[in-house]
Amino acid sequence: MRIDVVSIFPAYLSSLGLSLVGRAARTGLLDLRVHDLRDWTDDRHRTVDDTPFGGGAGMVMRPDVWGAALDDVMRPGPGLPVDAHLLVPTPSGQPFTQRLAERLTDESHLVIACGRYEGIDARVAQHVGAQHPVTELSIGDYVLNGGEAAALVVVEAVVRLLPGVVGNPQSLVEESHGAAGLLEYPVYTKPPVWEGLEVPEVLLSGHHGRVARWRRDQALERTARRRPDLLAALDVAALDRADRAL
Ligand code: ADE
């Protein structure tokens, strides 16, 4: 997969060189490039924003600068996939979920446009949308100063799902927001007693069936307490099938 990120703070994205994403880039599973939006300005001050039409506080990012950047970065070229998909992190976007992350793993080229200030002139998404899929997405109901932190979230959530990136694929199956739609059960490691706190006895029993049922119960209880919205959306038939397999 190829991922391009465009930002006025390319250094913000430097942590993508660490950990699993960094290794995926070094081993060739991922072709990751970060660009400075100001490279597409042509004035002495390298201006990327201007005052909003209609008035109001703050500044809006200029369509000509973003248009030039995205035309370049999204253009298919030698070795570049044809069908680039533009992602624009914004608090007014559709919710970024595990399901969306899974769908994005089917893409061969993602381009992430990190806006700052009051956002990017709306014509940029229209302009790119005439040629490419465009998804405006939000990582949660809060407002960040720009799209960079959201881009880090999206890249990590998508890249770890690419084949070969996470060492043990089974760990992708059992986690929160996985196929079962439940939050993950609590986990423990050695020592069996720490600060007077004991690991639940069932986990030391060696009885796989009892362990699986305990984890299922814990996941259900946790989801009911912390995320009743997820519980309401559960696929009960799928849960029943999973239960019969325990
Ligand atoms: N940019 C600013 N806030 C954001 C959010 N919550 N999600 C995605 N991008 C953002």
Automatic annotation (TrEMBL):
Positions of the tRNA methyltransferase TRMD/TRM10-type domain: 1-231
Entry-linked Gene3D superfamilies: 3.40.1280.10, tRNA(m1g37)methyltransferase, domain 2 (1.10.1270.20)
Catalytic activity: guanosine(37) in tRNA + S-adenosyl-L-methionine = N(1)-methylguanosine(37) in tRNA + S-adenosyl-L-homocysteine + H(+)
GO cellular component, one term: cytosol
Cited Pfam families: tRNA_m1G_MT (PF01746)
Keywords from the named record: Cytoplasm, Methyltransferase, S-adenosyl-L-methionine, Transferase, tRNA processing
Hydrolase recorded as keyword: no
Enzyme Commission number, as recorded: 2.1.1.228
Compartments in which it is found: Cytoplasm
Residues reported to bind S-adenosyl-L-methionine: 115, 139-144
Reported function: Specifically methylates guanosine-37 in various tRNAs.
Family: Belongs to the RNA methyltransferase TrmD family.
HAMAP family the UniProt entry points to: TrmD
Name of the protein in question: tRNA (guanine-N(1)-)-methyltransferase
The encoding gene: trmD
